[in-house]
């Protein structure tokens, strides 16, 4: 009896709250081509500027199908211990469109004479969310 009352009260409370909001995480099926997307410590790990672009277009003939475009650039600075990066991401799923801009800062420490390194990274950014209607 108590369980039924709790379920009924919970249901009524949810109805009184009004609108509920949720978020959709971007899916990255090709992140191994662009490691800096998920791991900011990778920024500057190569000895040159690296630019990577990926496109994910799922269920292409359906309206509101998931579409994701990512462009990343990262490079070491002249001091060999610091790397920086920038990522721009555009994700569209159904009626929502998310755009994000992220900056990466990485610091690496040499751990032996073979040039093996231990890297630490920080990613900071901003997301812009927009609800559009399917046309």
How do you describe this structure in short?
12% of the residues lie in helices and 44% in strands.
What string, H for helix and E for strand, traces the elements in order? HEEEEE
**Domains, number:** 1
Q: Gap between N and C termini, in Å? A: 49 Å
Global mean pLDDT: 85
Q: List the uncertain runs.
A: none
Number of helices: 1
Please report which band the strand proportion falls in: under 5%, 5-15%, 15-25%, 25-35%, 35-45% or over 45%.
Answer: 35-45%
- Helical amount among residues, as a percent range? 10-25%
Secondary-structure-based class equals mainly beta
* Strand arrangement across the biggest beta sheet: 1-2-3-4-5
Short descriptors:
single chain, 135 residues, mainly beta, 5-stranded antiparallel sheet
Task: Give a description of the structure.
The chain has 135 residues and is mainly β. The chain has one domain. It has one helix and five strands. A five-stranded antiparallel beta sheet has the order 1-2-3-4-5, with no helix packed on it. It is elongated, with a radius of gyration of 21 Å. The mean pLDDT is 85.
